[in-house]
Amino acid sequence: MERKGDCSFTSVMTLSKRDQNIPERYVLPPLQRPNPTHNHHISTSLPVIDLSMLNQPARRSQIIDEVGAACKRLGFFQVINHGIPTCVMKDALDSAQEFFNLPSDEKMCFASADVHKPVRYGTSMNHVMDKVFYWRDFIKHYANPISEWIHLWPSNPPSYKEKMGSYAKAVHTLHKQLMEVVLESVGLNANYLHDDIEKGSQVMAVNCYPSCPEPDLALGMPPHTDYGTLTILNQSQQGLEIMDQDKQWHSVPIIQGALIVQLGDQFEVMSNGRYKSTLHRAVLNMQKERLSIACLHSMPLEKKVGPAQELVDEQHPIAYKEAGSFGEFLDHISIKSLSEGKYIDTLKNQ
């Protein structure tokens, strides 16, 4: 057992190296287990958006329409030619790998059960609250403005701050560009809440999903939606699955150099339900470890968000209460596991 203050857990990396079977606390009830035979793999029809065309005035409206169609259908799309060099994406994943390969004692100095901590190492979703554990280790840290937070990030491995910092800054720039496109696609001005988006929260959830001896019994993360505006995901291996409007799970393929974009709860509220946040989960692999870096973007920590007035009319009455701030969302998950229900459901008008 690894310990640090009010936080104690055994990392999944430790378990994966010593056990032939997963511990009982990781075994999901039968109805919650992944069933590979029921998955619908639709890799040929997943939306892939070429952002290089945004710089061509004649093509910009076409890209906005493509993004709008993807948001309505799945709340999800992938982007290529997004301006972040492949080497920057790879360096970030490599630095994540180096961090998770550190001795346990070095990682545990960041361990905490306090979800408000600006830098936090942990396991599962919320190992204090989770009734069933999830096969994941993570380190989360705030990243915007990076000058305010980077000194708190791990100093070991030595290149972590430089490599992860370069990626964080590049993704923050991409997020601002994507928000303009998604806002226009839903019928809002590209500069809607511009200052709040510029100063918004950026949380980097750096995840490690070790190989799992019994992947059909467990999950890396349960079905959930992300709080915030957009999540931008960089992953080393396939493992993300998203649910469509027909309650079918879709495996998201790896496209070299692409980044995955998912709508979050804040955007669902802002759009007054025109777009929905994406229910997704992480499945496991018996042979391969998977790394992912999810950059979760939201409004500033204490900023509340309601439906945009431009998207409220007689045909579309106001459908959501004012969304709680990111800080209030953290309060919510500190007392209730995300696997017990979607936070967005607490914001809907009955």
Question: What does this protein structure show overall?
Answer:
This protein is of the alpha+beta class and about 350 residues long. The chain is built from nine helices and 14 strands. The chain has an eight-stranded mixed sheet. It is globular, with a radius of gyration of 19 Å. The N terminus is likely disordered. One of its GO terms (cellular component) is nucleus. Keywords: Cytoplasm, Iron, Metal-binding, Nucleus, Oxidoreductase. Its main location: cytoplasm. It is found in: Cytoplasm; Nucleus. Involved in the regulation of shoot development and salicylic acid (SA) homeostasis.
> What order do the SSEs take from the amino end to the carboxyl end, as H and E?
EEHEHEHHEEHHHEEEEEEHEEH
Name the beta content range.
15-25%
Specify the oligomeric state: single chain
Biggest sheet, spatial arrangement of strands: 3-4-12-9-14-7-6-5
Judged by helices, strands and strand pairing, the structural class is alpha+beta
Q: How would the global form be characterised? A: globular
Give the low-confidence spans: 1-6, 40-44
Helix tally equals 9
DSSP strand tally: 14
Give keywords.
350 residues, alpha+beta, 8-stranded mixed beta sheet, 4-stranded antiparallel beta sheet, 9 helices, 14 strands, 27% helix, 19% strand, disordered N terminus
Briefly say what this structure is:
It is found in: Cytoplasm; Nucleus. By secondary structure, the protein is an alpha+beta fold. The protein has helices spanning 12-18, 57-73, 86-100, 104-108, 146-149, 160-186, 194-198, 265-270, 326-335; strands at 2-4, 7-9, 48-50, 76-80, 119-123, 137-142, 201-209, 221-224, 230-235, 240-243, 249-251, 259-263, 280-282, 290-298.
